[in-house]
Design a protein that fits this description.
This protein is mainly α. It folds into 2 domains: about 5-255, Rhopdopsin 7-helix transmembrane proteins; about 285-334, no CATH class. The chain has helices at about 5-35, 40-70, 70-75, 80-120, 125-150, 170-185, 185-190, 195-205, 210-220, 230-255, 285-290, 300-305, 320-334. Helix 5 runs antiparallel to helix 6 (about 170-185) and helix 6 runs antiparallel to helix 9 (about 210-220). Residues about 1-5, about 260-310 and about 325-334 have low confidence and may be disordered. Pfam families: Fung_rhodopsin.
């Protein structure tokens, strides 16, 4: 089938799935603002992913429009200067799309890793593995971008699809990093001292990442079809949406309810002020340290006993449970 036979469907899917992905990210940012919570690093990464998503949709829509306005048979027989220039322009946009699309995917992975590091903060062993995961994520992003610029040549008719074997690097690293992000929190989610139904909920929440792995596996055979740019567009649209769901669903789940206003339970200004006049630690960090009580537990106990108090994320504690935990922490100080 000719390349230009299905561009209308590709435009519709890109607009629909890209719009849904953008809506999910906008909803996350809106809820963060609506709940009057301070923006975090993951929210700024979400804004970056939103910009890259809109850029990718715009570039692919422009490419599909150029393809739609051509007669493939006429182009094959009469490659005029105008058609040649259009082809070069389309190829440049395709190469730019590949670079931006990979930045979008790895940006969403960074959002997931930021969320995991926040959930598991305060525990020593997860901290080590989170650092290792950051190194793997950064190196893999550099590898896929470098591989893309080595493979894609905009002067060729099919700029990024001629060297199919080298694209295995992208497919492999994409799937392995998704699997890494799924497996990273699971050992501690299984060991957390919560009812089993609650643990299953948390594991299911973090296992949403299998959507991206499935999309990557299903898309892999299409890389072998150098004539199916529109087919690539179909799966690009699917990855737009699946990546947005995977990266933002845990945060949306935690933002589904407003946190209760916390009444001050500590003496006023119990800690010294910094030189600049700001408090040395926030109430949140104080509460976290009290819940963990890391200073009073030896290293062996820290590595063996994992409790739900390891995180202040509402994923782990409902409002009554958080209130009870805070009350116990206050009583232990008295």
């Amino acid at each position: 089938m000719a390349v230009s036979s299905r561009p209308i469907t590709s435009i519709v899917l890109l607009t629909l799935f890209g719009g849904l992905g953008a809506l999910i990210m906008v909803l996350r940012l809106f809820l963060r603002k609506y709940r009057r919570q301070r923006f975090e690093a993951g929210d700024y990464c979400t804004f970056f992913c939103l910009v890259t998503l809109l850029s990718c949709v715009g570039l692919l829509t422009a490419v599909s429009s150029i393809t739609l306005g051509r007669d493939a048979v006429l182009e094959a027989q009469h490659l005029t200067d105008e058609l040649f220039n259009d082809q070069l322009l389309k190829n440049k946009m395709l190469v730019a799309h590949q670079a931006i699309f990979r930045a979008y995917l790895w940006g969403q992975k960074a959002i997931v890793l930021l969320f995991i590091s926040r959930v598991l903060q305060g525990l020593p062993w997860p901290f080590i593995f989170v650092r290792i995961s950051w190194a793997i994520l950064i190196l893999s992003f550099g590898a896929v971008e470098l591989e893309m610029f080595m493979v894609c040549e905009y002067r060729k008719k099919k700029p990024c699809l001629d060297r199919v074997q080298q694209l295995v690097t992208y497919i492999l690293l994409n799937g392995l990093t998704d699997l890494m992000l799924i497996a990273l929190p699971l050992p501690w989610l299984v060991r957390v001292k919560r009812p089993w139904y609650r643990r299953i909920q948390l594991i299911a929440l973090f296992s949403v990442g299998f959507l991206c792995i499935i999309a990557t596996i299903l898309r892999a055979p299409i890389h072998g079809d150098t004539q199916d740019l529109v087919g690539q567009g179909y799966w690009t649209a699917v990855e737009f949406l699946s990546s947005a769901i995977v990266a933002n669903f845990p945060t949306l789940y935690s933002l589904r309810r407003a946190r209760k206003d916390e009444t001050p339970v500590y003496p006023e200004s119990p800690y010294p002020m910094r030189a600049g006049g700001s408090k040395s630690r926030s109430a949140t960090s104080i509460e976290l340290q009290e819940a963990l009580d890391m200073d009073r537990v030896n290293s062996n106990a820290r590595s063996a006993n994992i409790t739900s108090q390891a995180s202040i994320e509402p994923l782990f504690l409902s409002d009554p449970e958080r209130d009870s935990t805070r009350a116990e922490g206050v009583r232990s100080r008295v």
